[in-house]
Amino acid sequence: MKKSIFSTADILLPSDEVSPELWSVIACDQFTSERDYWERVKQRVGEAPSTLNMIIPEVYLDDIDEEGEIRKLAGFMDDYINQGKFREVRDSFIYVERKQSDGNVRKGLVGKVDLEEYDFSEAQDAAILASEGTVLDRLPPRIRVRKAASLELPHIMTFIADEDNTVIEPLAEKAATLPALYDFELMEGGGHLRAVQISGSDAENVIKAMDALHEKNKALTPPQCLMIMGDGNHSLAAAKSYWNELKQNLSSAEQETHPARFALVEVNNLYDPAINFEAIHRVVFDVDVEVFISDLKDALPAGSDFTLEILAKESGGLRVKPAMTKGVQANSTSDLIAMVQEFLDDYVDRKGGRIDYIHDVDVVEKLAKEKNCAGILLPTVTKPEFFKTVSASGIFPRKSFSVGHARDKRYYMECRKII
């Protein structure tokens, strides 16, 4: 019998004695240039059990002994298991409602995906596809973490294009009658999180609806995949890479059921009104700003649809805004981001500097005031072009978009054993 692409899992949640507010922290790839955010989180968590102890915030990557940190986080995972810090929700999905910073409630469904159905290359024939380019150099540290870990705790979000609201929305209508799992305020202005258990016939209905959506998408012209990555693509790519390596030493029977074949994710409907794409902007440090701006202007193709507007110059920093003119084609957002990213990669390679990827405009503006720093504000990907672009021409350039504001990113909560 063919496996379902998305299925129930044995999911671990913090036990009743653990504070969910201190347990749940934001995705490790957020606030990468704002160490003060993570210092506040560390101070607030203190010695309490927390997912903070099972991740490596990327803001610290340049300062740490990676091998030592991986041993430390793997040790916390094992300790939390042995000390009874988890309760298990067996053979279930978890329906999640996240109140965002804008007050809207985003609906999601946590379960496991089959990594055999996922491809992070530019291939377009898999059921689960990457939406952005995968930076292969970023995978090895994540693979090393997964190899050492007994648990996975995802900040991964995937999208389905379910205009008829057949998969997730029926659960929202009956959530009040289902077993409650957690309900609490997230730290650092992250909003509110609550969830209920989906099992038995309700879970079976989810799987049937997801399988039906997949068949519907395959019948489209051109055919369309079931899921596209929204967040956490590098984490899922690392899980896939590790599985490809691990399965070489497993029998066919072992490959069918090994827990590392699967990965825990949150699935969201692209057409949920609470889901909005946000641009991911670029900040370039340690550059001669005047030279940088001049070279960026020269990089624009003659007669292109793209223009640059220099907005300000303060304390040696410039903000640059690529702006699309009228008459731009449907894929112009992707084209513009690709052009800017190609320029940045080439510039840093030739002349030095360091690129960071920032979600909030006010942070870009703040950083761009620093000496030898330039900020680039990019346009936002629209929902109609999202599935269209990936289906027609493959992936977006890396770091093309974000789902909501930085504080609306997924917080770690659910875990699953992978050994």
What does it look like?
By secondary structure, this protein is α+β, with helices and mostly antiparallel strands. The protein has 2 domains: 6-275 and 405-417, no CATH class; 281-377, 2-Layer Sandwich (Alpha-Beta Plaits). Helix content is 33%, strand content 26%. The protein has 12 helices and 20 strands. Strands 1, 2, 3, 4, 5, 6, 8, 9, 10, 11 and 12 form an 11-stranded mixed β-sheet that branches. Strands 15-16-18-14-17 form a 5-stranded mixed β-sheet, with helices on both faces. A hairpin with a 2-residue loop joins strand 15 and strand 16. Helix 3 (66-82) packs parallel to helix 4 (139-148) and helix 4 (139-148) crosses helix 7. It is globular, with a radius of gyration of 22 Å.
Helical proportion, percent range: 25-40%
Quantity of strands, as a count: 20
Total DSSP helices: 12
The N- and C-terminal alpha carbons lie at a distance of: 24 Å
User: How many domains, in number, for the residues?
Assistant: 2
Which structural class best describes the helix and strand composition? alpha+beta
Oligomer: single chain
Shape: globular
Any idea what the radius of gyration is?
A: 22 Å
